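Dear colleague,

Following up on yesterday's call, I've attached the two folding results inline so they're easy to grep. Please treat them as preliminary; we haven't cross-checked anything against experimental data yet. The first protein's sequence and structure tokens come first.
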Amino acid sequence: MSTFRALFVEEEPDGKVSTSVKETDLKTLPDGDVTIRVHYSSVNYKDALATLKDGKIVSRYPFIPGIDASGIVTESTSTRFKKGDAVIVTSYEFGVSHFGGFSELIRVPEEWVVPLPKSLSLRDAMCYGTAGFTASLSVQALLDNGAKPEDGPIAVSGASGGVGSITTGILAQMGFSVIASSGKAGSEILLEKLGAREVVSRPDFNPEKKRALDTERFAHAVDSVGGDVLSYFLSTTKYGGTVTACGMALSGKLETTVFPFILRGISLVGIDSVYCPYEKRVHIWEQIATNFKLAKIDTLIHEISLDELPKALLQMTNEGMLGRYIVKFI
């Protein structure tokens, strides 16, 4: 295809930022080893921030956002991939400083491309996207540290978000008892459908009075919001437990002491999906296709078209949402 459609974020003469779907051509695409016909993309909060002037994601205009994509290779100078291969692209600079996945065609370096696992469809891959990949990294970290369902309850913060909801679903499906936190209306029904044993309000994981070492409450915890919630998890996780941290929606600051680490042997594991090593990245996608594959993933999914995407992004910045948007191109 000589021309194709994409979602552009552009800076207007008055300094404001606008978002619209436009037709463009291959000369628009940045350099790369692999050109891909996108079949699906997914919508993340980071993508919504990319449409805001003060979102601190986009530094130059015009720009095509979208940090996730799945599709079929149409051209390749890479020895890893050939025309016709089904692939996934997430992370690195994709959709941040390099034109992203809200486009019918993309061109990227070969190092950013992962082969689609055989038991996963292109649509399935975007039902997870970066959020599901991050959730799976978190679950894998717990398992690597020896977490077992019989250990006791696992706390999941930000559970109505992409990472938290998929984490809740994976852990519950594996037999873990999940206590999930959310402040969004309607989240309790959604999280219970995903298998949460208990759904609590945000203040439950962020009490006014905090202690350096509090009563043991959770066997392990998965945090995606940071700040005082992460501090609370560290102080209330049982002896030998693991706490993973992958976000800072609440705060990037962490106030804690050495007590949870030297008196209870707690492990704090950082989760990074952006520069995760390639071999590990491939392994996690294989886990998503097999051991972590959610039977109830469609409970979370709202499928939209490229033309409906601007409205969905505006909703995310203004109101937030339950579940995940995926964009269907083909």
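Below is the second protein, in the same order (sequence, then structure):
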Amino acid sequence: MYALTVLDHSALAVFRREHPWLEFPDAILEVCIYFDDNGGPTRLTALEESSDGKAMPADVNRFGIDTVLSLIRYAPQGTAEVEECPEERTVWALLESLPVADGIRPLDDVEAERATALQGAYETLHGIALDKLRALRDAARSPREMQRLSDAVASLPALLEQVDEAHKSSFIEVDLWRLVAVLRDELSMPADYEMMASGEDRLPSRETIEMAETNAMSGPVIQALFELSPVAFSISSIGQKSSRYVRVNQAYLDLVGKTWDEIRGSEMVASGVVSGSEVRAERLMLLDRDGGYAGMRGEIRHSSGEVVPVMISARRISVAGQLYDFEVLQRASDD
């Protein structure tokens, strides 16, 4: 879903009165400003009145930089809305239905099935990206811009496994990178096992915990990240009452004053480290609704009893169809 602010006809009338030097066209009926997950503006669209009185898309490129910046600054005066993204629903539905290794089927078969499903989802996004880039190319005003977009179309990889940072800008331009990145990251991760067979309160076996930990950490990049980073990381199963530690790094253990054996597989609140507060419930709601959040304040409890203020950023990730919460914690000031 996309967060956006809508400046309707009434809001734009006030905007024109407060910014007369911009000579903002009277024909513009509505302006929409879209924002990314960090609250930064990503794109701007507008509707204008045609000669027959109907609303039609306007060319925002003719507004000029001063007008665009003024509209962005004026965005708080508009109406905040959320726009559904069909592609996003499709991707998240796929991630939730990916096959999970069960210890019976050969792991290679599970991985092959996962790869096929992820490639299928990518092909859908790839087709949408090509259509949007071609539309931009056809509307380009200069040969140089037309050539740039033609190169972007030609360089877009057909296979998910070929996607890398060099293609990021092309997908960003058509607002699809965040979805492509999710698929790419999922493809790089191995399949693992369900943490819990049934019921939120059922305690997973030590063998199940070890299997989830092994699979979650089997990627060399993830392993190196956990071992070398001075920032506290944790991976846990999802749920307000059933979230259990799957893996943490040494920086996390240092922050809470615990050893891994003390919290391994423990329910996070029951471990005494995590506070089961309304603030945590809000963070979990954001993970359920948006798939993540950034820079939210929280508290954890050190083994000494000290309450440690922290800033937490998190993302819900899918490993072989099993969802986990990946958290990054940094000690916050007491201000």
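For the second protein, one point worth flagging: The longest helix spans residues 107-138.

Best wishes,
A.L.
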